[in-house]
Amino acid sequence: MAFTLADLVALLDLAADGPDRFLGLSPDLGRGRIFGGLVIAQALVAMGRTSAARPVHSLHGYFMLPGDPAAPIAYGVERMRDGGSFSTRRCVAHQHGRPIFAMSASFHAAEPDALDHAIDAPDVPPPEALPSAADIAAGRAGALPPAVRAYFGRDASVELRPVDLGRFSAKPPLARPPRQAIWMRATAPLPDDPALHAAVLAYMSDLTLLDTALVSHGRSVFDPDVQAASLDHALWFHRPLRVDDWLLYAEDSPSASGSLGFARGSVFDRAGRLVASVAQEGLIRLRRPQDATSAETA
Description:
Homotetramer. Belongs to the C/M/P thioester hydrolase family. Keywords: Hydrolase, Lipid metabolism. It is an enzyme of class 3 (hydrolase). GO terms for molecular function: fatty acyl-CoA hydrolase activity. With about 300 residues, this protein is an alpha+beta fold. The protein has one domain (about 5-110, about 125-295): Beta Barrel (Porin), CATH 2.40.160.210. It is built from five helices and 14 strands. The protein has helices at about 5-10, 35-50, 135, 145-155, 195-205, and strands at about 5, 15, 20-25, 55-65, 75-80, 85-95, 100-110, 155, 160, 180-185, 225-235, 245-255, 260-270, 275-285. It has a twelve-stranded antiparallel β-sheet, covered by helices on one side. The chain has a two-stranded parallel ribbon with strand order 1-8. Strand 2 and strand 3 (about 20-25) form a beta hairpin. Mean pLDDT is about 90; it is low at about 290-298.
């Protein structure tokens, strides 16, 4: 059964478990572990519940252990500071008595009439000119590997339309400049709740970013000999946004070394406004034929 937007919204409505304590659940999508973007989004929701309605402007998180989709996630929030304009929170997610994720976030009261500038969005085809998720899943977007088709059709809560699908099917694999661009959006209208839109963007921001660190090596996270896992994640919210309209995720990877790939992303709305920035480092290890190690034990 596909994971729908209604499922995602329900999972972001955390249950209270005491003062500044919350419980979250995760679907089992066959990965054997919880998707990191969901943990980021749920931790953000937990901290937002304590921030006196101030919108989030940045978050920084670290993944420590893979999450177990069969067990609830306990989120504990620490109120670090409440100032005149900023509130700072820290959240640690636990399962089976061990921390699996820790994140800090800062919330900022709106300040209108401030200095304002932003970079321009890259010139790419509009989403309507690109294959849809249904096209990709059904094999109507070219000879893509089965793992690629399955990935873009599995999560029905969001739609992803890569600008360059050819990198997944090139034979032999082609090394390209370390960048890619993906249009993304929630698959149905959402309520006018800025905190919900921020949480869904946090979820989406982890879907494709680390893969950018493999582009210049002619590889992807779908290759069976690539072990990939997010290690940390940072997200800055610059301007109001809606995730139920198309957003352009322009990604690049300045560096990869020592089995660590670093990637950045700029998120633009349909009007070309920069609404968010993302950075992430992750494990991108090439498996040896005899290596049985998995990302879960990294």
